[in-house]
Specification:
The complex is a heterodimer of chains A (398) and B (371). Chain A is of the alpha+beta class. Chain A has three domains: 77 residues; 110 residues, Butyryl-CoA Dehydrogenase, subunit A, domain 2; 118 residues, Butyryl-CoA Dehydrogenase, subunit A, domain 3. Helix content of chain A is 44%, strand content 15%. A four-stranded mixed beta sheet of chain A has the order 1-4-5-8. A four-stranded antiparallel beta sheet of chain A has the order 2-3-7-6, with no helix packed on it. Chain A has a two-stranded antiparallel ribbon with strand order 9-10. In chain A, β6 and β7 form a beta hairpin. Chain A is globular, with a radius of gyration of 22 Å. Chain B is an alpha+beta fold. Chain B has three domains: 109 residues, Butyryl-Coa Dehydrogenase, subunit A, domain 1 (Orthogonal Bundle), CATH 1.10.540.10; 95 residues, Butyryl-CoA Dehydrogenase, subunit A, domain 2 (Beta Barrel), CATH 2.40.110.10; 153 residues, Butyryl-CoA Dehydrogenase, subunit A, domain 3 (Up-down Bundle). In chain B, β4 and β5 form a beta hairpin. Chain B starts with 6 loop residues before the first helix and ends with a helix. Classes of the chains: A alpha+beta (398), B alpha+beta (371). The complex binds flavin-adenine dinucleotide. Flavin-adenine dinucleotide binds next to β1, β3 and α12 of chain A.
Chain lengths: 398, 371
């Protein structure tokens, strides 16, 4: 065990640092650009220099880096406040699924454009009828020669309004039990018949959408995995989603609340001297550090097999509530002023409103607990009314 | 960077676990709980033959000169097995204190015998209800003679010597003195976990030998607490995992309403939450052990992190394990109580969770000052 760099890791870190120092975009460079343009600029710059998606094989735009090198890269890159968000789904979820299930041709065609930031991808999984019960989706695809014709509706699709491609699960056979009748594709978002309508969120902004499909043609060449194998392919995506979602701090980390508590006063003393404040902060520190090292420990496993296991549900489960609770606690420290969106501490205000979504997106807290209990601890499954029944005979709410 | 124990360390873990499964099943733990022996002497002798007490003691003092990674592995297994021995007192506290702060003479005198298990040492600092501080110590050293009373001394009845926190007569503050058992009287007291013995010690002009520098007793003791906190956290993590295994096993086999209780979400979530808390505590222990093994400056922060998360994980697991077992969990008969008792004892014996939360933030403040 050694949490320090080996000499070769240290020299890699040095190389990363030097490159970042020279290449991180300046405020001036980013001025006047939309968030998407900013993200694309940075991704492009990394990709041109061989620093995008460094774990990927070179032929797909990576540099064959090790899992540890990937961590070093992330540690160094995260020291800067960089525009990154929009590639999470494409690079973090769609790409690993392509890597695992795609044909050579599919990979060669799409992975380099993901790495360079040329294409943004979204995830068309959830539907009005089914979110947690993802295998209960109803969007229907019927094969007509070389294409599949899709009708139905997706919902909560983050970034659909600016995405070039989407990964999508649809029902190709409603007469078999629900997990067996699904097939997985990727779809060009500019296809005829796709209609994207933004949905306004709690925070007032609109990052996710409803996406309607009317006779949308998806070439069979865009299929990942066999017909009827869509559930299995989705699992690859979801496992990577949970591993990816857990790593961010969603705008509020221990260090932010610690600093805030050091600056603000309670009565005549710094808030940080209050024993309740200290206890609460200590607990979050324990969680944050526990998650960090749990992630590190998982590295070895990740560098052996490609798909992160169900134990990764921890990072999202713990991380999401932690962020929500820290934001709420920070607003309490601000007292009445915490209720104002104009406060210079708007970070906590924003996170308070955004964090409920972290506990739902990518599998709810409850689903994460189910996964840990059933897949990791091996506890028996819930009684399932729909088990083994043809999908079109399963009772539903509408 | 490498975040795994080595192959050799994993092998040691397997051996330790196999050994304790054979020689320390919970029936052995119960013998101490229900009988009059203060600890399992037979087990103590056997683990001494394996050299566990000698793990990090240098070879020049008859030790094995191994690293804290090996000691962490052993601590986890002892915790998992609820081993009824004075290991933590003698190894994590007394040996560590002498290793760090003993004079060459003191080390030569005690370490070889601590290493082979012939001698048991412990530490005595508590005097009253509530939190001990460097200001409320009443025991005094006057010209090398100790007078006062210490309570809740783990293994105080079986220790051959005890390191006592006293107020120095020179007005310097607190100091640590090593006092041999023939110099004090003791009275055995019941503790929340009778598988570990406790005593009240009376010192009446007892002869003692100063350890370290006069006036630095509190600091020295706390530096050793940081180290011990990481090792005890491993015992807690081992105990938590064992508790989770017991709960999982029961939840799969006990039926109610025509199905295993483990298929009810309310039970599932308890167990999943145990798993989560256990995993976070364990991961913190990895980092903590690295700071301990390498003498890293982050040790105090890492130690408090290990301790707080391990206390919380073990408490949660043991109380919800009883709940998972229903009425059965509340019986003397079932082993749930053994873990519940041990969890609380370990949560108290180096100072409470609340105190360590405070230490964590203090350590963080100090790290920021340095940076
Ligand atoms: C900010 C945000 C972004 C999102 N982005 C995307 C995206 O890009 N692409 C996409 O496809 N989807 C996206 N989603 C959708 C998300 O995956 C779903 O909202 C989520 O899986 C929950 O599904 P649902 O909303 O249908 O809730 P439901 O499944 O109806 O759940 C409602 C409640 O019931 C509970 N519940 C359901 N089943 C169980 C069970 N078996 N055991 C215990 N409790 C249960 C849930 O935990 C929840 O509390 C996003 C959601 C949010 C909030």
């Amino acid at each position: 065990m050694d949490f320090n760099d080996t000499p070769s890791e240290a020299s890699f870190r040095k190389e990363v640092r030097e490159w970042l120092q020279r290449n991180v975009p300046t405020k001036d460079e980013l001025k006047g650009l939309t968030e998407i343009q900013q993200c694309k600029l940075w991704q492009r710059r990394k990709s041109d220099a061989g620093w995008a998606c460094i774990r990927w094989p070179e032929k797909y735009g990576g540099r064959n880096a090790s899992a540890i090198e990937q961590v070093i890269w992330q540690q160094e890159e995260s020291k800067y406040d960089l525009p990154l968000g929009i590639f999470d789904i494409g690079i973090g979820m769609a790409a690993p699924t392509l890597m695992h299930w795609g044909t050579d041709q599919q990979r060669q065609k799409h992975l380099p454009q993901l790495a360079s930031g040329e294409h943004i991808w979204c995830q068309l999984f959830s539907e009005p009828i089914a979110g947690s019960d993802l295998a209960g989706i109803r969007s229907r695809a019927i094969q007509e020669g070389d294409v599949w014709v899709v009708n139905g509706q997706k919902i909560w699709t983050s970034g659909a309004h600016y995405s070039d491609f989407g990964i999508i699960v649809v029902r190709t056979d409603p007469t078999v039990p629900k997990h067996e009748g699904l097939t997985y594709f990727f779809v060009d978002m500019k296809s005829l018949g796709i209609d994207v309508k933004p949905i306004k969120q709690i925070s007032g902004s609109s990052n996710f959408n409803e996406v309607f499909f009317q006779n949308v043609k998806i070439p069979d060449a865009n299929r990942l995995g066999a017909v009827g194998q869509g559930w299995k392919v989705s699992i690859t995506t979801l496992m990577n989603e949970r591993a990816a979602l857990g790593t961010g701090d969603g705008g509020v980390a221990f260090k932010n609340v610690f600093e805030l508590a050091s600056q603000l006063m309670i009565e005549d003393r710094p808030a940080i001297d209050d024993s309740q404040v200290r206890s609460a902060l200590a607990n979050w520190y324990c969680q944050e550090s526990g998650l960090r090292y749990t992630g590190y420990r998982a590295l070895t496993a990740l560098s052996r097999g490609e798909t992160p296991g169900p134990e990764h549900s921890i990072s999202k489960l713990v991380g999401a509530s932690k962020i929500q609770d820290m934001a709420s606690f920070a607003l309490d420290l601000l007292e009445m002023a915490g209720s104002l969106s104009t406060s210079e501490q708007a970070r906590y205000f924003d996170t308070f409103l955004n964090s409920p979504g972290f506990r739902v997106a990518g599998g709810t807290d409850e689903i994460m607990l189910n996964i840990l209990a059933e897949r990791v601890l091996g506890l028996p499954q819930e009684v399932r009314i729909d088990k083994g029944i043809p999908f079109n005979e399963v009772p539903t709410s509408s | 960077m490498n975040f795994e124990f080595s192959k050799e360390q994993d092998l040691l873990r397997e051996q330790a676990r196999a050994f304790l499964t054979q020689h320390c099943p919970t029936t052995v733990v119960r013998k101490i709980l229900e009988g009059n022996d203060p600890f399992d002497r037979d087990l103590w002798r056997k683990i001494a033959e394996l050299g566990w007490q000698a793990t990090v003691i240098p070879e020049e003092y008859g030790g094995l000169g191994l690293t804290y990674y090996e000691l962490a592995v052993i601590a986890e297994e002892l915790g998992r097995a609820l081993a009824p021995t004075p290991f933590s007192s003698s190894v994590y506290l007394a040996s560590e204190l002498l290793l760090r702060d003993g004079s060459p003479g003191q080390r030569e005198r005690w370490l070889p015998k601590l290493a082979n298990g012939e001698t048991i040492g412990t530490l005595a600092f508590v005097e009253d209800l509530g939190r001990s501080t460097p200001r409320n110590i009443q025991t005094i050293a006057r010209n090398g003679k100790i007078s006062g009373r210490k309570i809740a001394v783990t293994d105080g009845d079986v220790a051959d010597f005890v390191i006592v926190l006293v107020m120095s007569d020179k007005g310097n503050g607190t100091s640590l003195y090593c006092v041999e058992s023939k110099e004090f009287s003791y009275e055995i007291v019941d503790s929340i976990d009778p598988t570990r013995s406790h005593a009240t010690l009376e010192f009446n002009r007892a002869y003692g030998e100063l350890i370290g520098t006069d006036g630095y007793g509190w600091e020295t003791m706390n530096a050793v607490f940081d180290r011990a906190a990481i090792l005890i956290a491993w015992e807690q993590v081992g105990g938590t995992e064992s508790t989770l295994a017991q709960a999982t096993e029961y939840a799969k086999s006990r039926y109610a309403f025509g199905r295993p209780i483990g298929s009810f979400q309310a039970i599932k979530y308890k167990l999943a939450n145990m798993y989560v808390k256990h995993t976070l505590a364990r991961s913190n222990c990895y980092y903590g052990t690295w700071t301990l093994a390498g003498g890293h400056a982050d040790l105090p922060l890492a130690a408090a992190t290990c301790r707080v998360s391990a206390i919380q994980a073990y408490y949660y697991a043991t109380k919800e394990n009883i709940q998972t077992h229903g009425g059965m969990g509340f019986t003397w008969e079932f082993d749930c109580q053994l873990y519940y008792r041990r969890a609380k004892l370990l949560a108290l014996n180096l100072g409470s969770e609340h105190w360590w939360q405070d230490r964590l933030i203090t350590a963080h403040e100090q790290r920021n000052k340095v940076a």
